[in-house]
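As a warm-up, study this chain.
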Amino acid sequence: MQLQLDLALPKPPAETTVVVAMSGGVDSSVAAARLVEAGYQVKGIMLRLWVDPWEDMNQARENRCCTFEAVSDAQRVADQLGMPFQLINVSDLFKNVVVDYFIQEYSQARTPNPCLMCNRRLRFDFMLRYAREELGADFLATGHYARLRWTPAGVQLLRGVDARKDQSYVLSMVPQAALRHLTFPVGGFTKPEVRAMAQRYGLQVAAKSESQDLCFTSDYRGFLARWADGAVRPGPILDLAGRELGQHRGLPFYTIGQRKGLGISTAERLFVVALDRARNAVIVGPAEALGRDRLIARDVNWVLEAPTQPLRVTAKIRYKSKDHPATVIPLAEDRVEVRFETPLRDITPGQGVVFYRDEVCLGGGFIDLT
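Now compare it with the structure written out below.
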């Protein structure tokens, strides 16, 4: 019974079909093994995503998702666990939903987070529907380090037990309707514990290293130069007074708060404080010019009920950032204003801002304006 509660599934195992999103890595493999061990009816699925054809022909792609090796690893784990396995080609959909968004955001001088978009539009939309409609799944399982808690009001999204691996940030925009059909079997464990379980199960991927963050390219600068249709253009680096200090290589190669790699020599330390798309200019200034105490977020998803009054939260403005005390003020059309207690130096349009109350992830949206 404890195992069932750990997996956050409300139905008895023998009556529950779970489709596991496989990657060929240790986390999804242990998730599958736990479900099989608990007696659930388990099936494996893997998505073949789009990758840059140039990189596929010219560069090695070790330890990346969707490689032949990754598919082979996932198939071997499925065979070892005695569960069916299916590979689905969604390269066109992935290109349209995730890659084109990535290119468009950089072309608009924004810094995107493709994992947020992938989870919102592909993994927990298309893949969940496919698992339920085509494979008869009651639930879709993944190897994410996050947890779910069933309450009378709905399913809460919780941080993973392993604070260093917690992935609730990238799951914050998954809607409640999808969360009701998800489970994260490794979210209650630390990474070392998951590796130990993989060894106990005898999984060949037990010692496999982590995959890269971007699954469709290993060189985003070269990728954008090939695919961004003229958005990568050299231009001026300007100080706050408008004086030209040098030349940049293209706006997509810079982000708010960046200091290194600017290629300029000045008496004081300067940071990127803005990307001016209209002038194709990188604006730099001293550290104190970076501070922002508020932002506007768009396309906000609330895991449970959306607030109608100002709400005290802690907020993360990047995947690996700290929690910052803030107040969320609801606006119209899925937009909110977020006011921080102290100014922050690296609020970046295009990234996600995610809201928490202690271990509970309340939701999140995309940073639009600062």
